[in-house]
Structure formats: C-alpha cells, structure tokens
Amino acid sequence: GAIGVGIDIPTGLTRRGVWGTEPVKEHPDTEHSIVGLEIPRWAELLEMSSRCYELSQLGYIGVDFVLDKNKGPMILELNARPGLAIQIANGNGLLHRLRMIEALRDHGGLSTDPAERVA
User: Fold this and answer.
1) Number of helices and strands (H, E) in the chain?
2) What average pLDDT does the chain have?
C-alpha cells in the first residue's frame, strides 16, 4: 500500500509518484503534493545507500529509509530486487544507468570509496 516516489538523484527533489500501478501527484490520504519536495539530508542518504554495497555485496539494491526527527536517517531495509514501481515512479528505466556503472567497473573507474561513488 506504500507510495513509490521518484527522486531526482543529483538534487534530492521528488518528481512523481506511483501508487500500485497508478501515477499520483498527491498523497492519497492527505491529498498533499508529493512533487517538488526536497528530501532532507539528501547527500547523507546517498552515501548511506552507497555504503550498503559493502554491507550486502549486491550490485543493485533498493534502500528504504525513515527520517526520524531525533535520530536522523535510519535504514529500514535493503531490497535485493526492487520492483518495477521504482522505475515507474522515476519515469525512467534503469538499464542505461546500470550499463554506465558496468562500463565504469569494466574500465577500472568505479571507486571502492562510497563517497566517490556517490559523486
């Protein structure tokens, strides 16, 4: 029943959402817009996500976070096979991104440092 929200990776701004298979622009319960929101501590979330590779050794994972007012960002779970909803929410497939990362790896340009991978 969760809403998948596509996020622009460089900026941390929300772009669009999907609920089930339906595109949405508002949260179905509150009717508040889910488009154009700035994700707090975005750079920190990206680096935490990048560090999950060393933790899981999975090349492609989905990382679910919760942002707690007092404790900050916390990882809820790692998804080994994130579904199609994430691609629908982003309005963009992943194949071109995965190929770019594989090319970096194959040419020795994929850093082992999580912060460098984010950059």
Assistant:
1) 4, 5
2) 88
